[in-house]
């Protein structure tokens, strides 16, 4: 459990020192169990929200209550080629913001360190409020999603180069796996558009009017994020088309080789078929008849070879 009091500076405090009547606002970082313990003591959250924090729905959403906003968000991480969501929850009121998760969330830890070390002087300059802190969390979340999209694009680039150099069916597994990771990314990012629109609506007026401009920026960033995601999906589709084209070209080259071989042997089969018929032929009684047929077969093959070379079929 970590509790910070925030005004012109940020200081760590305790539960007993919390006073919602002061000019300060508070940032609570809690586990679901700690949140349940404090609910009813200093908070008055709905039980359904507490249960939501304990479960792992992995679907981002926002809900408005009389004096607070409840959000379910997913912070994505890219580890060993896998896109995995870290679910965390946020409660926002005019006097506090509560972040809760079962495990540490990277973007929350980074923002805490930044504020504690006063690296983000912009936050302390104007409009200090839980609403603005929520804006910074969402901004970090979107920036993190951009980084994952870039990593997936780099993976697709490498895969495309390998496909163009050595087209092989083993790369199809890589493409299908990459598409699965993008599907996970899309499933987690798409609800952000709904969340951005609803926060901008500010149904319960928890978000300060002077902070609405920040959430307009969030909406704009979400739209750009969705555009980048759709571009990535289209790019992976193009990579798959390139793979299918290369595999088709490879198959065509193989069929061309087989056809050429068949063209060489077809005239020879005709000659063998003619001389294999049960008729008396002058060549059969000639002492050089066998040699004549062999030379004829080699001559036909040579003529075909020269013809194919001239036509650049070989």
Describe this structure in words.
It catalyses: Mg(2+)(in) = Mg(2+)(out). InterPro entries: CorA_cytoplasmic_dom, CorA_TM1_TM2, MgTranspt_CorA/ZnTranspt_ZntB. Mediates influx of magnesium ions. Alternates between open and closed states. Activated by low cytoplasmic Mg(2+) levels. Inactive when cytoplasmic Mg(2+) levels are high. The protein has 314 residues and is an alpha+beta fold. The protein has 2 domains: 2-248, CorA soluble domain-like (Beta Polymerase, domain 2, 2-Layer Sandwich); 254-310, Methane Monooxygenase Hydroxylase, Chain G, domain 1 (Up-down Bundle). Helices cover 60% and strands 15% of the residues. The chain has helices at 32-38, 47-54, 106-116, 121-125, 130-165, 170-189, 191-201, 212-275, 282-285, 289-310; strands at 2-6, 10-13, 25-30, 61-64, 69-79, 82-92, 96-100. It has a 7-stranded mixed β-sheet, with helices on both faces. β1 (2-6) and β2 (10-13) form a beta hairpin. α5 (130-165) packs parallel to α8 (212-275) and α6 (170-189) packs antiparallel against α8 (212-275).
């Amino acid at each position: 459990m970590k509790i910070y009091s925030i005004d012109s500076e940020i200081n760590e405090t305790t539960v007993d020192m919390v006073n919602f009547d002061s000019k300060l606002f508070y940032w609570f970082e809690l586990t679901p169990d700690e949140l349940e313990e404090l609910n009813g003591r200093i908070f008055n959250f709905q039980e359904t929200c507490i249960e939501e924090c304990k479960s792992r729905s992995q679907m981002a959403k926002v809900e408005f209550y009389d004096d607070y906003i409840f959000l379910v968000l997913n912070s994505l991480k890219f580890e060993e080629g896998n896109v995995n969501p870290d679910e965390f929850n946020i409660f926002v009121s005019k006097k506090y913001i509560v972040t809760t998760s079962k495990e540490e969330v990277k973007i929350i830890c980074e923002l805490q360190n930044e504020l504690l070390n006063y690296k983000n002087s912009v936050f302390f300059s104007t409009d200090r409020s839980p609403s603005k802190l929520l804006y910074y969390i969402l901004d970090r979340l979107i920036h993190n999603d951009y980084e994952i999209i870039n990593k997936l694009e780099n993976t697709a680039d490498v895969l495309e180069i390998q496909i163009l150099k050595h087209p092989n069916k083993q790369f199809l597994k890589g493409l299908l796996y990459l598409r699965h990771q993008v599907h996970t990314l899309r499933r987690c990012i798409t609800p952000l558009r709904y969340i951005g629109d609803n926060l901008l609506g500010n149904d319960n007026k928890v978000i300060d009017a002077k902070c609405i401009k920040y959430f307009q920026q969030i909406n704009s960033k979400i739209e750009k994020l969705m555009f980048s995601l759709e571009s990535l999906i289209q790019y992976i589709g193009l990579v798959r088309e390139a793979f299918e084209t290369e595999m088709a070209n490879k198959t065509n080259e193989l069929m061309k080789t087989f056809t050429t071989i068949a063209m060489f042997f077809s005239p020879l089969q005709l000659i063998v078929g003619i001389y294999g018929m049960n008729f008396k032929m002058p060549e059969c009684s000639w002492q050089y008849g066998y040699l004549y047929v062999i030379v004829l077969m080699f001559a036909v093959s040579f003529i075909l070879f020269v013809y194919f070379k001239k036509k650049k079929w070989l």
